Amino acid sequence: MLYAAPAPEQRPTAFGFIVSKAVGNAVTRNLVKRRLREFAALSLKDHPEGLCVVVRALPAAAEADFAGLGRDYRKAFSVAVARLRQGGPAGTAGTEKGSDE
Predict the structure, then answer these.
(1) Do the beta carbons of residue 22 and residue 59 sit within 8 Å?
(2) Which residues contact residue 45 at a Cβ distance below 8 angstroms, ignoring those fewer than 6 apart?
(3) Residue 10 DSSP code
(4) The CATH number, out of the four listed (3.40.710.10, 3.20.20.20, 3.30.230.10, 3.50.90.10), of the domain defined by the range 2-93
């Protein structure tokens, strides 16, 4: 799941990650977090300011490969940003598969 909200006063974009024990052991959780941080860093190139983003990794993220997790992240991120730009409520996005959005 990915949640996005506008940052106050056009502050730099900030990311937070929630990876619970349901995702796996410490090694698995850290692997998922490292991958998510890489995707977030790539997102900063297009959105360097104005967003607060929280990414919640679901248990299926432990089984997803790098490419699959990246696809899910990019899809969820673009949906959440689009919802914010349309003036709707804070963006929330996820996929049926639930790997990580």
Answers:
(1) yes
(2) none
(3) G
(4) 3.30.230.10
